[in-house]
Amino acid sequence: MSRRAPVEGVAEERPVAAVLVSAPVPHLDRPFDYLVPASMGATAEPGCLVRVPFAGKDLEGYVLDRLAASEHEGRLARLRRVVSPVPVLGPQVLGLARAVADRYAGTLADVVRLAVPSRHAGAEKAVLAGPPPGDPVRPGPPADVAGWELHQAGPAFLAHVAQGGSPRAVLATAPGCDAAALLAVAARAALTSGRGALLVVPDHRDLDRLDAALTATLPPGSHVRLEADTGPEARWRAFLTAATGRARVVAGTRAAAFAPVADLGLVAILDDGDDSYDEQRAPYPHTREVLRLRAEQDGAAALLLGVTRTGESQLLLEQGWARPVQATREVLRARAPRILVAGSGPGGQDPVAAAARLPTDAWRVAREALAHGPVLVQVPRTGYVPTLACRTCRAPARCAHCAGPLHLAGAGETAACRWCGRPAVGGGASWRCPECSDTTFRAVVTGAARTAEELGRAFPGATVRTSGGPRVLDSLVAGPGQGRSTLVVATPGAEPVVEGGYAAALLLDGWAMLGRPDLRAQEQTLHRWLAAAARVRPAAAGGRVVVVADPQAPAVQALVRWDPATFAERELRARAELGLPPAERLAGLLGAEPDVAEAVEALRRSPGFGPTWRVLGPVPVPGRPGAPELVRTLVAAPLAEGARLGEEVKALTAGRSARKLPTVRVRIDPTQIG
Questions:
Q1: 10 Å Cβ neighbour count for 147?
Q2: Of 338, 554, 613, 625, which residue is least crowded by CB atoms under 10 Å?
Q3: How confident is the model at residue 662 (pLDDT cuts 50, 70, 90)?
């Protein structure tokens, strides 16, 4: 809008609105100016949702600012309407979205789409019709600190938060401690200081436990739960309740990381290495990094809590960004179960039992423990036999139609493809190995259902229950005559809670978990083992854990010592030697080979390309038959130059038209390296 010619029918004060249009095209990553009609002058305030004409369509957008004039010399279009006058994209969320977009070389519109859920008019009307937010409630310290006293520096962390400070901690929980209760007490400390808290957990079962702990610990109405799975109405209601200050504590899953919390005093994340924190939509931000940026932006305390440490949390400790909070060795000895490695005792391992996946010492521990309580059996995969191979040469068994992996869905079932569903035998033809021409299969990995079947035969007097996949047991009653003589076969993360703990646990198929072609295989395996072992009774009460894996593996040694700190230090050193995240910053480029080559060449020519930067690849990305062939290239830069790497990668797309833009997907610090 030009200052030289006033326009009729527009707002007299600040007649121009800078609008972030929901158009995620990279070269349009900037606000656009629109005239504000006089009828919208009082409602089209910064942060509110509007509809605007854009490229021949009506699109939604957010008002970022109101201006007295526009730098654009041409004619400006007008706002169509104000969809909602509630300023849901406030300065707090907007600043965080900008930081995340810069960190992950993404567009602001993409991040805002992740941050602000879809509007629901009915939920909005119900929230605004309710009582207005009152004065913040400042509860006193809780009578029960839920195990914080078992950790060195734990009470000091709580006291610092309650006094209005902003400490940052990485907490490795002691065995038997309730993580939900620890988080609830930390949230109460933030409320005591007159500030709010944001707590993020991996999935809805963790959220159910946290919700119950917050209800028991905080004053009524102090918190809301925010998760994407509850649907648009419930999610918008929770988001708006927090945005208007009616709730000071927000608990949720990945979707809650951007939730607006007034006077934020604490951000906390449970098990930051969980796969569920990897966002699957551009620009693929990790929840841990979002909360880290948020703690820095808002000056809030930060807490990374879990049974183990990730390489990223260890890096934060070594950089001095956070301090360790952990149990003493005396506490660990008193509360941890006894850890045994199958086959490492006198006499070695029975080869017949090993072939049956249950070594003699593991079978003996389970038999003895069943007389005293339930026994947990952890297996890596759900299903019956999820992966098959040729019995003779052990080559992976593939479908003859689409080359998908073959599996068995149940006892007596015919092998079938996991991709197309076609049976491997039928129509007068049978599967034949292309390597050796054998027609018989062997199981590569045995699933939970097959394991339960085998254990039912090994322990005929026991009740066998499974937990995993679509059927997860949240808890198991272990009273007299109810939980005893019960074997629970569960996949990692699906172990039901037992009051008083399991009498023993068997961690089977360790080779399958440790041998995964994944950068974080050892780290994730240790986390899953420790999480299962933490549900077992202390050694003084007879609790024992048997792990079936190579006793020389670092994760096995860390489990036996219950020492996630030393393991994390070793893991970070190994990654630093290899130049892998988080010791270095990586940018992953995925797309058709010509497009990736063009993008890499443009990056090499950029003036900001550092002399120590490395280009790794391209390597082909396995895909389904018939799909376009893709390649992946990684660009690695020293950690200190990570911000510049993001800027240079983002500059590849800035200012280029959609027609000339290569179809390359950019991912900063990809979770899958290969």
A1: 20
A2: 625
A3: low
Task: For 547-597, write each residue's pLDDT tens digit.
Answer: 999 899 999 999 999 999 999 999 999 999 988 889 999 999 888 888 889
Confidence at 659, pLDDT banded by 50, 70, 90: very low
Instruction: Give a three-class secondary structure readout of 335-377.
Output: HCCEEEECCCCCCCCCHHHHHCCCCHHHHHHHHHHCCCCCEEE
Helix or strand run (H / E) with residue 487: strand 486-490
pLDDT of 354 above 60: no
Instruction: Check if the beta carbon of residue 45 is closer than 8 Å to that of residue 19.
Output: no
Q: What is the pLDDT of residues 380-391, one digit of tens each?
A: 887 777 778 888
C-beta neighbour count of 601 within 10 angstroms: 10
Return phi, psi of residue 455, to 5°.
-70, -30
Q: Which of 389, 380, 383 lies closest to 513, judged by CA?
A: 380
For residue 259, give the nearest of 278, 276, 272, 246 by alpha carbon: 246
Residue 579: name the closest of 637, 644, 520, 524 by CA: 637
> b/e map of 130-143 (b: 16 or more CB within 10 Å)?
eeeeeeeeeeeebe
**For residues 139 and 188, is the Cβ–Cβ distance under 8 A?**
yes
Which runs of consecutive H residues, i.e. helices, occur in 80-149? Answer: 91-103, 108-115, 121-129
pTM attached to this predicted model: 0.88
Q: In the numeric block, which tokens belong to residue 339?
A: 């850890």
Which band of pLDDT confidence, cut at 50, 70 and 90, is reported for residue 403?
Answer: confident
Q: Please report the DSSP string for 616-669 in residue order.
A: EEEEEE---TTSPPEEEEEEEEEGGGHHHHHHHHHHTTTT--TTTS--EEEEES
CB of 255 closer than 8 Å to CB of 235: yes
Q: How far is CA 523 from the centre of its chain?
A: 15
Q: Tokens in use for 131?
A: 């009582």
Output the CA angle 77-79-80, nearest 5 degrees. 110
